[in-house]
Amino acid sequence: MKTLFIGAGSMAHALLSGAINAKVLEKEEVYITNRTNHQRLQEVIEHFGVNGVSGCLPSNEEFDVVILAMKPKDFHEAGPAIRRFLSSGTLIISVLAGISIKHIRETLAFNGAISRAMPNTSAALRKSATAVTYNEFLSERQKEWTLTFFGSVGLSVEVPEEQMDLITAVSGSGPAYIYYVAELLEKAAVDFGLQKELARALITQTIAGASKMLEDSGQEAGTLRKNVTSPGGTTEAGISTLDEYGVSEAFLKCVDSARNRSQEMGKELIVNRVE
To answer: Do 67 and 4 contact (CB within 8 A), yes or no?
Structure first.
């Protein structure tokens, strides 16, 4: 599949890494462009051995797949250039947070196949959790390819579009929440006397082990937590303190804030386009 990535940031890098390693994309058929950061573009081109264009999109080219991976705020400016590379058979895949299929269709004046997906940067390790939705114009072959593409970089699931803002808040932003927890655990460990390298190694393996237990045990997270929380023990003392400081409520508000921001981003882009 002749594929054009528009944007060379961390998400494009992660998707390229996973999909090329999984042989879903052939590097000879991949093109990539970036609007301003040409050094970053060149680094991606050299790292993956793909085709790149600096400054503008390649002229007189049509693509089987166009992947929108720029910053959401740059979408409208790129619109006229993107339209030149769309044919009736092109599949557009967007990984832009907050931008609906309807908005993409209207901005690009494109009445064809559009898929919207929300992966996360763990795609680079083929460990992404990706939700995928699409409009009615995708053929069965295009649907299968889209799910295979994202499946090559981790878990790929089909969802209705109305759930995408929530999924953006949960799994799209989710790795950052885990890194935040790891960061705070490491800081606490170091503050109380552990060496930084030792603290990091212990915390990293602890998170990896807990993730594996969630994946393999088939048990609910709450059940696993209770299994290691002995009455009157150290874990109970720690969790009681988390409850005392309202961590549960903080996580609810965290997800709600991220979901709301995803919705706001889409509305802001519509307003900016009108203005």
So the answer is: yes
**Do 230 and 236 meet the contact criterion of CB atoms below 8 Å apart?**
yes
Rg (CA), the chain: 21
Residue ranges of domains in the chain, CATH in brackets: 3-160 (3.40.50.720), 172-261 (1.10.3730.10)
Distances (CA, A) of 37 to 33, 41, 53, 202: 10, 6, 12, 37
- pLDDT tens digits for 51-98? 987 555 555 667 999 999 998 888 988 888 888 889 999 999 999 988
Whose structure tokens read 């009455």? 231
Q: Which residues pair with 94 in a beta bridge?
A: 68, 116
Dihedral (C-alpha) 93, 98, 103, 108: value to the nearest 10 degrees? -50
